Each structure stands twice: as structure tokens, then as C-alpha cells.
Amino acid sequence: MSIKIENISKNFGSFAALTDVDLNIESGELVALLGPSGSGKTSLLRIIAGLEQPDQGNIYFGEQNMTDVEAIKRQVGFVFQHYALFSHMSVAENISYGLRVKPRKERPSKKEIKDKVKELLELVKLDGLENRYPSQLSGGQRQRVALARALAVQPKVLLLDEPFGALDAKVRKDLRRWLRKLHDEFHITSVFVTHDQEEALDVSDRVVVMNDGQIKQIGTPDEVYENPNSPFVFDFLGNVNIFKGRVHNGIFQSSGDEIYHRDIAATVQNTKKDTFAYTRPHQFDIQTTEQGEGYLPVSIQYIHAVGPIVFIEAKREQGDLIEIELEKSKFIDLGITQGQVVFVKPKQIKVFTPEEFSI
Ligand code: ATP
Q1: What's the CA-to-centroid distance between 39 and ligand 1, angstroms?
Q2: How many CB atoms lie within 10 A of CB 339?
Q3: Splitting the chain (359 residues) into consecutive groups of 10 residues, what average pLDDT does each group show?
Q4: According to DSSP H, which parts of 192-273 are helical?
Q5: How far is the CA of 9 from the centre of ligand 1 (A)?
Q6: CA-based Rg of the chain, rounded to a whole angstrom?
């Protein structure tokens, strides 16, 4: 089921929580709403669910305008951060709740409900725990019960609000990967809210980056990470190095150092005033002896290896620190040590015009 969000605005008193939001979600997509606290993610999710009414705009599921349709009639499954399980009900009773409260005509038989619960317990890998109560489960298990409960009513759309936010890092990662696999099996159009960029980039088909009640960028994880359209998105999505300077005929000149980049021509040719060039830590070329133009001498301050990646902090001559990420094999080939002076050049930089800083 596709979702179309058309020109949605929502105010709380004089505060604009959402302003003119447009978004098309394709049938079967897994989309992450990503943004800092207060950016409007939950408000948008609640409007899709029908738990909140927009002041302006429309929501469509497929061709059907759902804007005035009650939440209960929208056929959405909702999973919240804090489980929201019924503590006095067993796992099986929680999962079957949505089926048991259906109007008599639509309600499945006791046998059908039992079979459905069994099937869902297997799906969320909780078989054998049907008689436990929420207090007897781990956080990850509770969240899987919440998901099974949401799936029991065969929703057309699955909405998840920080579903793994309360779990520790390892469980979080396992569960989100598992959610992705589950999604690939069932293709239920799913929207999940997170403020964790790693989570959004790791599992979604597309990421919707929000700030101040507006959508700042929509794209695949690769697009938004590698080609952010604003300083905000660049900064919010990962580590970044920022160089101050000017562009002259397509060449970025930073505090006396010259850094070339072919991309600059596409966006900015000349800047009269100082502006900023952005580079991700993995976007540097690094040499132990200077060969070619545009390399900056830096001294290695800190080296930290995690698995296949080596994180390096290096100091420029004028004092700024640069963060660099190198593949371990490359790091070993270069034989870099602490205190050494090496030469670095961004393979890619993105220059934003002063106007783009206000986006
Ligand atoms: P978080 O990650 O902290 O949950 P969010 O991006 O999901 O943030 P929302 O919960 O959508 O943000 O809130 C957006 C803004 O609207 C916030 O400033 C919040 O305080 C405000 N807001 C949300 N709901 C209400 C409400 N019922 N009454 C008043 N203000 C509200």
C-alpha cells in the first residue's frame, strides 16, 4: 500500500511542529524518518496513523484519502518505543488482542486465533514463551511481542516509533537487521522513526531527513550520506571535516592550502566571501611523502583501530584537527605511526554557498 503525504502542516498552539510536508512512500518500502529531537518525526508518524489530525493537507493510502478516517479504521500496525504491552496479559493474549476485540462479524474463531498466535510466535522467534507475562521478558523480547501484536491484524501499513530506542546497542542492531529481513519477507509498507543515523542508514530503503518540522532531504542511505544537500544533513548524518575558505575558478582555497576538487564546478565556481567545504573522514587520500598537488601536511595525533577500520585524528599546521578513516590494510601498507607527518587530500569535498547554510 503506497502512502502519499500532501502538504501537511501541524501547529501546537503557536508552535509549528510540521510545515508543508510532502512525501511519497512506495508500496512495500521501508522508510526511516530521521532527525534530531523535536524535528517533527513522531508528529508525522502519528498523523499517518490517524492518532493526530493535521491542520492542513491530506494523507492517502493508495488512492484513498484517509485524512478524516479514524485511526482504528486505517488498518495500521503501530509499535512504540516503550513496548506498550498490556502487563496483565500473557504474551499470547497480547499478540491476539487486536483479533479478539474485532467486531463479532469480523472476529476469527478461537481456533483461528490460536493458530495465528502460534504462527506469529514462530515468526518473531518466541515459540514456547506464550504464557509468560511482559515482566518476565527481556526488552528485546517485549519489542518482538509488540511487533507480533502489530502484525496480527494484517496491517496495510506498519508504523514504528523509535522501536528499538530503549534497547542496548547489540540487541538494537540484531533487532533492526531482523526487522529488515522480516520486511523483505512480507513487504508491508513500513515507516519507522529514529534519531539514530546509523540505524536509519543500516536498514531503510530510503531515509527522510527532518529538521524544524520540515523535510530536508529524501534519498537512499547512500545518497543522503554521500551527497547531502545541506550543511545540516551533512553534519547530522555522520562525522565531517569542515574547511573554511573560498572557491576561485573551481578551486577551493583553504587558509593558505589548496584543495582541488572536480565536484566544486558542479555546485560552486566562485565565492566572494568565505564559505565552508565538507568532507567525510573516509574521503581522504593519504601519502607518507608529498606527491602531487593539493595535499595538506598533517601530524598524526591519535590512532584507534576498530575491526577493519582505523580512525585517525591528525592536526593541520594551523591547528585544526582532521578526522580520517582508513581501511586497516591501507593503514598497514602505509606504516603510519603516532607523531608522524603525512600528506592528506580530500578525494571529494562539497562546498555550500553561504545561502545554503540557512536551508
Ligand atoms: P523526539 O525524537 O524527541 O520524539 P520528534 O522529532 O519525534 O522528537 P515530535 O514529537 O514530532 O518530534 O515533536 C515536534 C515538536 O512538537 C516538539 O517541539 C514537541 O515539543 C511539539 N509537540 C509534539 N506534540 C505536542 C503536543 N501534543 N502539544 C504541544 N507540543 C507538542
Answers
A1: 7
A2: 7
A3: 97 95 97 95 95 96 96 88 82 90 84 89 87 90 88 90 82 85 89 93 95 96 92 92 84 70 64 85 91 86 93 90 94 94 89 71
A4: 197-203, 221-226, 231-237, 264-267
A5: 13
A6: 25
| Spatial distance between the Cα atoms of 209 and 197, rounded to a whole number of angstroms | 9
According to DSSP, the residues that pair with 232 across neighbouring strands are none
Q: In a mutational test of the pocket of ligand 1, which residue from 8, 42, 164 has the highest number of ligand atoms less than 8 Å from its CB?
A: 42
CA nearest ligand 1 atom 9, residue: 40
User: Are 49 and 191 a contacting pair, CB within 8 Å?
Assistant: no
Q: Residue 242's closest CA among 256, 233, 254?
A: 254
Residue whose grid cell is 591501507: 330
**C-alpha span between 69 and 74 (Å, rounded):** 7
Q: pTM for the whole thing?
A: 0.87
Boundaries of CATH 2.40.50.140 in the chain?
A: 239-357
Q: Which residue's C-alpha comes closest to atom 17 of ligand 1?
A: 38
For the Cβ of 14 lying below 6 angstroms from any atom of ligand 1, the answer is no
Beta strands (DSSP E) in 41-188 are 56-61, 64-65, 76-79, 157-161
Q: Report pLDDT for 267.
A: 66
CA distance 325 to 304: 10
Distance CA 207, CA 33 (A): 6
The CATH architecture to which 239-357 belongs is Beta Barrel (2.40)
Closest CA to 211 of 223, 228, 191, 189: 228
Superfamily (CATH H level) for 3-235: P-loop containing nucleotide triphosphate hydrolases (3.40.50.300)
Locate CATH 3.40.50.300 in the chain: 3-235
Strand, coil or helix: what is 69? coil
Give the integer Cα–Cα distance in Å for 212 and 208: 13
